[in-house]
Amino acid sequence: MTRRMVIPGEFITDKKYNLGEGVYREKDGIYSALMGLVDEKENYIRILPLRGKYMPKVGDFVIGNVREIFFNSWELDINSAHNGILNADDYYKEIDTFNEDLLDILAPGSSVFVKIREITHSKKVYVTMRERGARVITGGRLLKIIPTKVPRVIGKQRSMISMIIKETRCNILVGQNGIIWIDGKPEFVNIASRAIRVIEKEAHNPGLTNRIRNMIIKEREEL
Amino acid sequence: MKIGEPEKFIIDGKRLDGRKPGELRKVKIEVGVLKKADGSAYVEWGGNKVLAACYGPREVHPKHLARADRAILRCTYSMAPFSVTDRKRPGPDRRSIEISKVTRQALEPVVFTNLFPRTAIDVFIEILQAQAGTRCTGIVAASMALADAGIPMRNLVPACAAGKVGGEIVLDLSDVEDNFGEADLPVAIVPQKDEVTLIQMDGNFEKGEFEKAFKLAVEGCMKIYEIQKEALKKRYGGA
Amino acid sequence: MFDIVADIKKDFIVNLLRSKKRVDNRAFDEYRPIVVEPGVSEKAEGSSLVKIGNTQVMVGVKLAIGEPFSDMPDLGVMMTNAELNPLASPRFEKGPPDEDTIELSRVVDRVIRESKCIELEKLCITEGEEVWIVFIDAHILDYDGNLFDATALGAISALRNTRFPKVEDGRIIYSEKTDKKLPVVDRPVETTFAKIGKDIVLDPVLDEELVLDARITIGTNEKGDICAMQKGGDGTFTQEEIIDLVNKSREKSEELRKLV
Description:
The complex is a heterotrimer of chains A (223), B (239) and C (260). Chain A is an alpha+beta fold. Helices cover 22% and strands 33% of the residues of chain A. In chain A, the strands form 4 sheets. Chain A has a 5-stranded mixed beta barrel with strand order 8-9-10-12-11. In chain A, strands 1-6-7-3 form a 4-stranded mixed β-sheet, with no helix packed on it. A 3-stranded antiparallel β-sheet of chain A has the order 2-5-4, with no helix packed on it. In chain A, strand 8 (61-69) and strand 9 form a beta hairpin. The longest helix of chain A has 16 residues, at 186-201. The two termini of chain A are 37 Å apart. Chain B has one domain: Ribosomal Protein S5, domain 2 (2-Layer Sandwich), CATH 3.30.230.70. In chain B, the strands form 3 sheets. In chain B, strands 3-4-5-7-6 form a 5-stranded mixed β-sheet. In chain B, strands 9-8-10-11 form a 4-stranded antiparallel β-sheet. With 260 residues, chain C is of the alpha+beta class. Helices cover 26% and strands 35% of the residues of chain C. Chain C is built from 5 helices and 12 strands. Chain C has helices spanning 6-18, 99-114, 147-160, 206-211, 239-257, and strands at residues 34-38, 46-52, 55-66, 77-84, 124-126, 130-142, 163-168, 171-181, 189-196, 199-202, 214-220, 226-232. In chain C, a hairpin with a 2-residue loop joins strand 9 and strand 10. In chain C, 45% of the residues are buried. The chains are: A alpha+beta (223), B alpha+beta (239), C alpha+beta (260). The A-B interface holds A 3, 5, 7-10, 22, 24, 31, 33-37, 49-53, 81-83, 122-123, 148, 204 and B 32, 38-39, 56-59, 68, 110, 112, 116-119, 147-156, 190-192, 229, 232-233, 236-239.
């Protein structure tokens, strides 16, 4: 199904809907506040943005980078409007903050795959590693893509990302914040990176999974 | 008469650069031109070449500037030293600081800052080449960079100036007209909403002339608005 | 900046205006009492103290001899500067001028310059080499809103009583003034309106300024021509409002012009 593309200030409809993300109401109807695609449900309308910063949501896994270290917490850049806070208590194992320096555990620049645990009213974003799948990331390569393209990279029921992992034999973690970690044989990491870049660029095109698979297979053969 | 001042600004209904009184210079807009920025735009308007980048919403530094109920919008208008004939000293001067302020106030009315408490939305406008009308070009570019960054906004903000040269009201002054003309009236609007977000004026408008120039500037804004819309659809319309 | 009271005040002021009243009981298009005292400084070549209600601005004019701009070799030079002195308000801080101060300087400069009230061509001493430079310095002494109108009024008032100092062998003797007046041929003034909610008022006091949505300053000359304009604030005006305010400004300017 092709969705209608709209830009900020564009009139969408005079029908009655509940308003979701990226739309606003004026006297004569509903307008778009974003550049994106119109997503109309039975009684609900929203815009799927084509561009935009990642907005933290509880439950999302993101990749963060240690920026600051405090007595019992780390501050992470999570490629978002707000930094993430990882308390020592949320580290995957017990830390004795009186005898251990957090600097020795995760130094500035370290990357972690974490889950967003809580967002307070004052927009403090708390993340945790006490979750299945959360981990410290070492080695490999980080890729930054437009966060709104993340769902396409993952695919329906993880179909796209599973295929890439299978075909490149790489380890891949996709943060909802648009940061992707790829680890494996360097030449395969390169292939996976290129594949993800193509998805980012052509996210709107149908039949992408097969094309990407063919692209990976072809590049693998050319190695 | 000042050095370089032409004797006549309009000859046989045509301006010195061949335009009709109500005609814009050539305008070209492109979005998504920078890799690192969250949103960006490049605008060529006559001889003006202007780049705008938007970063945000992002953490506010210094932190005490953060607002609990909304994002703060910050705009920086800056002229490259090589953008003008006589080298401009780098860094903000009084003119740039004033333009930065009115640019922010021209855009603020359309941005849904309330959606992003405790964050900053930063827009940087760099004048790479200047040829009369840089503030309007900057506002147009900034508004496109905001849209390109996916910042929710009520509408795009077009801007355009009208002025008076040789006693005639004309649209979108060229540099000669700006230097030697009698008045300059830059305007920015929210299209279809009858809201004026920027208006400044210097020079001399007699009774009646102001109204005429003002209406012409608003018409110019609407023409720019069409080019803005087209630029976004062209860049992302394949979706 | 602390505006602890601003949010509560905004509702209060908006509601008040909706019932056609202002905080100080003035009509929407009425100025506060205005006092203009020219010649308050003996050291300056020209000066004036302007009070609009509780707002007080002192403007001094100093003259100097210097080089003209290369593209205007036969014209004198004028410069306007405003200082938001910390003594005038807890809101003002020491340090380099912020954007509000710069905007004030430039908007006042605009009306003086664009009205061509100073005959700059008469300030040429030797073409391309020496001209008179007119420094207009405004000091805000007490800030209770509407600095634009007060400062512009102070500037034109000070310019109109500016007299040249004595010059001997190309050197200025500031201690001796001559009878020769600075050639000032017009009386430009600025009028400022604030839009708060749906209402528009002339000459906003500080309480009104703090909650305004949009502001517009319009400068006119004696003929009633528009010479300068500046919109401020994070809100907007309709086209009709602007045209209406331009006409209103012409009317109200006459009240100010009578004072200089």
